Amino acid sequence: MPVLDMLETELREVNATLQAAARAKGNETFTIENPRGAHAMAVGLDGPISVTVKGSTGYYCAGMNKLATVHVTGSAGPGVAENMMSGEVIIEGDASQYAGATGHGGLLNIKGNASSRCGISMKGIDIVVHGNIGHMSAFMAQKGNLVVLGNAGDALGDSLYEARLFVRGSVKSLGADCVEKEMRPEHLEILRGLLERAGADARPEEFKRYGSARTLYNFNIDHADAY
């Protein structure tokens, strides 16, 4: 198992090594030691490799991930897994603001808490947060699933489209056009699969589902104050 020690190797070289291995599609496994909160680590991985970061990272870790598995044993700064396409990103600690922003696919598994705007403008990604999420999470979320085992802050799902939001705890407030919806059998099945994939200790029946009321899709003068 190759080890990249950032006390000895510059970030640019670390990323170049990982990207080359991803392109080679050799299913290699890497360990990054002494990350010291470096920014933009393990970004743009376009192939089936596994990367374990032994510590915490700065902003934009695992951005644009495709097929790779990136496992951060500490916490992650802003924008982790931004614009993720596929694969899996696991954060053992907490994630800062806009985790999983604009993600198109794959699984972002946050074992701690996530800050504000988690899942903003998500476009198909699945996000599981084992703790709480901050305000304005899932803002303008278009597609995908956001699962929260803890509580959600203000303005959850503001102006969202067709993303599904599942929250086990309390929701401080719902954003514009976000409403609680019926939890049907197909939603329980989706949620059960996501909880199993994320290794979450929870039952689907403990959650409530939230989604779009679809009143802001087209301009209507009766809803002008909600835009």
UniProtKB/TrEMBL annotation:
MF (Gene Ontology): oxidoreductase activity
InterPro entries with a match to the protein in the record: Glu_synth_asu_C_sf, Glu_synth_lsu_3
Protein name: Protein GlxC
Organism: Alloyangia mangrovi
